[in-house]
Amino acid sequence: MLPRDRVVCFAVTGTGYELGKPSADLDWLPISSTTMPEEKMVPGRFGGKTFPSGKLTRKRFISQTVDDILEYCKTHQVEAILSVLAGPTMIEISDMVSSRSNLRLFNMVWDPIEYIMDNLNFDKLAARRICVTFERVQKRAITCAVASDAMGREYGQRYGVDTVVMINGAVPSPQTEKVQRISREGELVIAFAGTLYAAHEFNSLVSALSSVDFRLAGQDIRLIVMGNIFGVPVTVTGNRANIEILGFRPTQEVVNILAGADLGYLPYWMQERYAMAVRLCFPNKLTQYVTAKLPVFYHGPERASPVEFMQRFPIGISCHSLETDAILASLKGFIAGPEMADKYIEGCQKALEAEFNSGHFRTQLARFLQVDEEQLSLGAD
Questions:
Q1: Which residue stretches of the chain have pLDDT < 50?
Q2: How crowded is residue 97: how many other Cβ atoms within 10 Å of its Cβ?
Q3: What does pTM read for this prediction?
Q4: CA distance 64 to 55
Q5: Helix residue ranges, H only, the chain
Q6: Phi then psi for 330, rounded to 5 degrees?
Q7: Distance from CA of residue 123 to its chain's centroid?
Q8: What was the pLDDT predicted at 147?
């Protein structure tokens, strides 16, 4: 969307991550990169926690990378920095670069920093120090792109930063007309696409379906799983199972498969330790399901970003429990009211028209970068 002569990239990648070559439509982009030391803290030799490479090595890496970025900015006559605050290393680098330059700063945040620190096993003192640095970087920013409306409200209140929700829609499927599979074939197809983080929720669904041998209210239930399930064991306790694990598929194929299903399964963590993450993050799976005009089966806590989105756009059903009876009751309600599927499909269409489209994304991008939309090249949708 931006003119080619106005964008350069300095990538700080994680250990074991191969940057690779950019796609054909980005082969013009100047890219420099470096690999950061492992960020996850481990037990220290004499107690406490440290980094695998050592704290001194990490400090030297950050200092050198900051020098390299500033030199890179000077070489390419950079006027502003877009920083993705995806972890403690990038937060510290962004803090030092922004403090040592007069460049305008635009931040992006997809996951709450507290959730990241917990995942990286940071001790309380180290986590607190990063959170203070994060606050300092946010207060320097002109705007901050965020993952959800809830994150936007909270970060605006916390840091006084102007926030913009940035959710990019998936590629629309040519299959726009939904078929009434329930009444035509006597089968309810539930599809999952993406990375499976919420293992407990997923297993509770499988357990519930197993308890009725994958047949409910006169319908055979088929569960299709696409993507990365992290080796989560699928345990079937009944006499019959009907699960297809397809692994990874190209994006368009995934959307086409979703378009032929009846419900898109969206599990979200119900454990208390994830309360902030589910409230402030936004699952990409939801975007995929809406793009496929697939009614959603949300299975997660009530206080979460998908619930807020589903209150604005009626796109499916919800279950806020791991109990078998509650899960089956939600599915029975959907089967008993097939006319509601049309309402949910209409809700998906309204969400596509309002938020999950290239026009809306361009508008949000212009707000984020503080430019007129006309200043963004049209590019390809």
A1: 176-184, 378-381
A2: 21
A3: 0.88
A4: 14
A5: 55-75, 88-99, 113-119, 124-140, 149-159, 181-185, 199-211, 251-259, 275-280, 284-291, 305-312, 324-336, 339-354, 358-369
A6: -65, -45
A7: 25
A8: 95
